[in-house]
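Lab notebook, bench 4. We co-purified these components, and the gel suggests they stay together. Before we commit to crystallization screens, I want a quick structural picture of the whole thing.
Request: model the full complex, all chains together.
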Amino acid sequence: MVMEKVVYQRPESLTDTVTHYCPGCTHGVAHRLVAEVLDEMGIREKTIGVAPVGCSVFAYNYFNHDYVEAAHGRAPAMATGIKRVRPQNTVYTYQGDGDLASIGMAEIVHAAIRGENITVIFINNAIYGMTGGQMAPTTLAGMKTTSSPLGRDVELTGYPVKMAEMLSTIDGAGYIVRRSLHNPVNIRKAKKAIRKAFETQERGLGFAMVELLSSCPTNWKITPQEALDFIENSMLPVYPLGDYKVHPELAGLRV
Amino acid sequence: MPIRGRIEVNQLHCKGCELCVMACPQDVMALDMEHLTPKGYHPAQLVAEGCTGCAICAIVCPDAAITVYRETPQKTRATA
Ligand SMILES: Cc1ncc(C[n+]2csc(CCOP(=O)(O)OP(=O)(O)O)c2C)c(N)n1
Ligand code: SF4
Ligand code: SF4
Ligand code: SF4
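Here is the predicted assembly.
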């Protein structure tokens, strides 16, 4: 006799709403991983998410737990307030690179400096997705965007900002890593990092951020698979994956 | 006997991005060019025998559209 078991199914922490994300956009993979982690930790019902402005502005429609929507770049400030008033809840922000590293740069840096006990999921797709593919602080040197049609000129507009490296120098940070969503092995590693970033908060070990290299096939103007190849070939050399800061109490944690 | 599995693709969530098709190590998936989903995409589907239920397609799917099943062979007593 042959029986069957379910090896994978849609996580409970996602609603049944169809996302507005473009086909193949790895914002969806990041959502799935967060949802799987919340399911596995059994913390869905006490979790409060803070959505950004950017393509993930509607994250509150897609996650099956409480959510609020912040003004552009201000998610870390809002998460700070919520976590301080409701320390029993798990609080996280989900932010793009325009949101976190451009207009919201001061908010994220000071949240880390204050050692706020929140978790940050940072989507680095090297572009402003929602508004039509303008240059972001994370845009690669020479990369063509709608506002750098000849390629980003670093002499004129500065260099790609490395958020994980930068925030890891801050004492209030407990867990700062960079992962990528471009293939199954790296997606698995990204999920483990997201788990650790939530465990950091559950253990009260300070500010936690997972930077995820993510695709934007629409504004990069390539297919979803080519976009994953672009992450591997062009983004990884500029944004090396790694553990930039891990609190000693997390070092031995197996997830 | 090799492990056998199968997948179900949710027709509302699938956007025909083809990432699962490219990632499947058994090469048993393809887009269904004969049909459109309610959102107007060609959905992914199994097109050949050989799915092992490895769930790699589900791991890369940005829309959590894939449910993966794997057969669990039950021990049967040898008869005669
Ligand atoms: C105060 C304010 N300034 C500017 C905008 C316009 N705006 C909307 S989304 C966005 C950038 C989004 O890019 P990113 O955070 O990288 O997210 P993505 O869309 O790539 O996921 C900008 C500048 C706004 N909505 N509010
Ligand atoms: S514009 Fe880019 S980041 Fe936004 S949903 Fe589409 S592919 Fe994703
Ligand atoms: S990865 Fe998901 S959304 Fe993309 S074609 Fe496969 S099942 Fe459909
Ligand atoms: S479960 Fe594995 S073998 Fe089966 S379709 Fe998905 S990727 Fe291919």
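Chain A has a mean pLDDT of 98. Worth comparing against the SEC data before the next meeting. Chain A has one domain: 27-249.
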